[in-house]
Amino acid sequence: MSGVAFVLATANPDKAEEVRAILTSELGDRIVLLERPLEVAQVEEIGETLEENARLKAAALVGSTGRAAIADDTGLEVAALGGAPGVYSARFAGEHATYFDNVAKLLAELGESEDRTACFSTVAIAIFPDGTELCAEGVVEGRIARQPSGDGGFGYDPIFIPIEGDGRSFAEMSSVEKHALSHRGRAFRLLAARLAQQLG
Question: Which domain CATH number covers 143?
Fold first, then answer.
């Protein structure tokens, strides 16, 4: 049986690699994941929630390619910063911020605060050309380290320490270890289960 094709909405190669690894692990050859076409413009993330942004991205890819699409949006909420950066996590230090820029700004704003509690959330959405939509959310609680550690992962991984782990940051874990605990792993495993039911 040939797999059902989905276009991955993300233009971030690090995120695409994680999504591909998780979905392929769960669904095998039941799905085929296609790269985002280079000619498709980036979608402006104007939603007020992660779900709204994920839906905007998936719907835009369905509209431009005519194929089913999978998208997600992820946010880091830090208690001492009133839930920031939230939906602005990827652009916390500006529209063209690097991972380093965002981490540096977060640590600077958090300063010496004793409250380092935080949570990572991912909302993953699959939309089919007929309008059918499947949605899943994954959340992981943790704390923000005082300085980065580890050279794996991406984004805020060097400073996020999940409470269900062993004290290491996501960036200090192997990809398998990270996916087992992470917000993205949880969201896409749940989405995969719902896709399995939908695809029959």
Answer: 3.90.950.10
Q: How many domains does the chain have?
A: 1
Cβ 169 vs Cβ 157: under 8 Å: yes
More confident residue, 17 or 40: 17
Most distant CA atoms of the chain, gap in Å: 56
Is residue 73 part of the annotated active site? The answer reads yes
Q: Which long-range contacts (CB under 8 A, 24 or more apart) does 63-66 make?
A: 64/37, 64/40, 65/7, 65/37, 65/40, 66/129
Least confident range of 30-39, 115-124, 127-136? 30-39
pLDDT in tens, 4-20: 999 999 988 999 999 99
Q: Which of 73, 115, 151, 166 is catalytic?
A: 73
CA–CA separation, 62 and 161 (whole Å): 36
| Res 1 pLDDT > 70 | no
Q: What one-character DSSP code corresponds to residue 189? A: H
Burial (CB count <10 Å: 0-12, 13-18, 19+), residue 168: middle
pTM, to two decimals: 0.93
Answer for the pair 136, 191: CB distance below 8 angstroms, yes or no: yes
Write out the DSSP string of 60-117. HHHHHHSSEEEEEEEEEEEGGGTT-EETTGGGTT-TT--HHHHHHHHHHHHTT-S--E
Residue 29 tokens read as 């050859």
Domain of 112 in residue numbering reads as 4-199
